[in-house]
Amino acid sequence: MFRPFLFRRLGPLLLEATHRRYAGAHQRMVQFRLPAERLNDLKERLSKGDGPPGESEWNEIRRSILDERRFTSTNVDSTVLGLCRDLTTGKSYVEFLRSKGIALNLAIVGKLLRLYRIQTGGGGLSGVDQEEIVKIYEDLRASNPVLDGNTCEHLIVALTLTERWRLSFDLLDMIKLAGTPDSLTYSCLIERCFQEGEIEIGWRLLEEQAANKRLPNDEVFLAWLNHCRKDRGNFRSNLEKMLSFTNAKAIFLSKRIGAALRELPPEFNLQAVEARMTDSGKCSHCKSTLASIVVPE
């Protein structure tokens, strides 16, 4: 048991102090209104391992979705991009749209930006990928001095993967003009702050995220643990800072974080074990009792 007191140029977290949630999963999920059978068929076609669809197949996929009454030329393309599971497929569809002279609206660009972050799970972004992200940012800012919140969030999620990640701070301020950044936006920026040694800024944003009832994801805490490994002289105090924060904000750390704690080198003199809890909340290892968990309806 782990005790919580410890994205080429293109033409709620806490209800009360006693309510706890688990860190790790993002809250915002893309929802499609295609019939389930049709949706599964399209996902399967776009997940084939023989490369992205060709022009004729993209044309057929787009037409078949437009045949659904609720879809129009305004929302069909962002829907198709939302079905793409990797950056290569997404870029292929964007090239198809450009070849047809179809303008890329903000929703399309937003879906493409999110695919850049998905790409990092398969080995990271190339220098060309990073240049594409920055170019998209520059083009959008040139035509829109002030961007809407959703577009800012998409840009931050992608920009934080590049060397120009500090451009994200102005975008974060834009979001705050009319709303609150979402969990993933905060988490991506905080993670990069910790990776780049911007510790004070990262913790200020983490406190702000919790105050705004936005849940940090696993990558935030994994980035902090990596910082702890590097700052050996302050390892214990840095670790206690994270655990004290999650306890104060009533955030349970996930199994991924628990595994990362167990894998810390022996020289850190830290013992982390996996334990079972009784129905009353008593730990089988340390015999301490956890506070009650309230599951909201």
UniProtKB/TrEMBL annotation:
Q: Where is the signal peptide?
A: none
PROSITE patterns per the UniProt record, alphabetical: PPR (PS51375)
Q: Which residues cross the membrane?
A: none
> Which domain of life does the protein's organism represent?
Eukaryota
Q: Where are the PPR repeats?
A: 182-216
Designated name of the protein: Mitochondrial ribonuclease P protein 3
Query: Which organism's genome codes for this protein?
Result: Culex pipiens (House mosquito)
- Specify the taxonomic lineage: Eukaryota, Metazoa, Ecdysozoa, Arthropoda, Hexapoda
